[in-house]
Amino acid sequence: MEEDPELWKKLKPGDRVRFFRMPSTLVGYVPEETRRLYEWMVEHKHVLVVDHYDTIDGIDYPWSDWFEPNCEHLEGSHTIVLNDDGLERVN
Questions:
Q1: Does 18 reside within a domain?
Q2: Which of 7, 25, 39, 73 yields a CA-CA distance of 20 to 30 A from 32?
Q3: Is residue 11 part of a domain?
Q4: Are the C-beta atoms of residues 8 and 88 closer than 8 Å to each other?
């Protein structure tokens, strides 16, 4: 299956996705905790559910709120905007 870099624009609340690779927007400098979070999600094939949309500068962005108690490198809950490439739908 070919990657759809704009999949995020087609997501609806309740859709399930995961990162199959590190998003290209995060290849450069990102905070250490952010990098570890995405590496962990890719490695564990962590499924995210679109919880809500927020509008920023007139653009609707899908977001996922989650808490992963089994992630030994990260603590607490996380809110992630799902507007990157590297996403795939999960049934």
A1: yes
A2: 7
A3: yes
A4: no
| Number of folded domains that form the chain | 1
Averaged confidence pLDDT in the chain: 86
How far CA 66 is from CA of 15, 74, 80, in Å, comes to: 14, 12, 8
| pLDDT given at position 29 | 77
The whole-number average pLDDT for the span 69-81 is 68
Whether residue 2 lies inside any domain: the answer is: no
31 contacts 21 by C-beta, under 8 angstroms: no
Q: Where does the pLDDT of residue 10 fall: very low under 50, low under 70, confident under 90, or very high at 90 and above?
A: very high
State the pairing for strand pair 48-49/52-56.
unpaired
- Taking the C-alpha atoms of residue 44 and residue 8, their distance in angstroms, rounded to an integer, is 21
Give residue 57's domain range: 7-89
β-pair partners for 65: 79
* Residues, the chain: 91
- Please state the φ and ψ torsions of residue 57, each to the nearest 5 degrees: 50, 40
